[in-house]
Amino acid sequence: MSERTKAISYREAGVDIDAGNRTVELIKEHARTATRPEVLSGIGGFGGLFALDPSRYREPVLVASTDGVGTKLQLAFDLDEHHTVGIDLVAMCVNDILVQGAEPLFFLDYLATGRLVPEQAAAVVKGIAEGCRQAGCALIGGETAEMPGFYPPDHYDLAGFAVGVVEREKIIDGSRVTAGDKLIGLASSGLHSNGFSLARKVLFDRERARPGAAGDPAALKKELLTPTRIYVPYVLPLLEKYQVKGMAHITGGGLVENLPRAFPVQFDALVQVGSWPVPPVFELIARQGPVAPSEMYRTFNMGIGFVLIVDPREETAVKEELASQGLPAYTIGSIIPGSGVTRFDPPLA
Hints:
single chain; 349 residues; alpha+beta; six-stranded mixed β-sheet; 11 helices; 10 strands; globular
């Protein structure tokens, strides 16, 4: 057979089916640790089966969300550390559905890569399983796609999908928010998974960075890889004890854009700048850029990853409950009459 007529394999085209099969076997070990009694199927089928227990609900409403990790992945590539970004993936989805009062039920992931490395993929899924355990949901399936020529050989992208449930009468939509309610900010674990394009440009772009200004780049990258905090185990118990009127997951857009999503347009959120400790990494980014305060607060969470809107009479009790769980929480402002925006006192420059 001539070279022109020689048969070509899928592996020679860049897709290794054997590596895919090995990846599935490695992933199964982690997926088994993130399950719930309602799960009827294991990893490897065409679809995941989850039997909702009808005895637990009167009028269940499903809540779904999808998200990714963004350019934070570049730090994982740089350091060859892949076990934390899976937690980020779960966190970005389950924190979103938590905002409406939903309990996360199950999660699916999608990993696309230029060249499938089973051990690398397994490390990512190990983090996903850990995130699911923290959130109390099951990892019931996913997809791994090897796409040579589309992604660089050692790079991958992630997407996640979470589904939760809430009783219709317990949906939190902000409709009960009124002037005088308090904003309770829950501490973030760092940048979470937002603003990394700006952070990387400021901290690691050699053309911009001043020598030594950002310290040890590898150590800083490792710090920035700290996974997004999952607020589910802290907040769900509160919803059974207190009248939480509104919630906001502080993701892209920061406090500026996410708080108004939690209350009616006839009100504003008045945030008291300085009412919580801003982690040093944000101060480093602002100084190194330099980045203006207004840009910082609409790009990063600035140390507040989740916000509860509560009646002033429950403000102290809610903060004490969170403190007892080891999660720092601060009164960062209040709801005032307005037009559906976030205001800062003093105003941001």
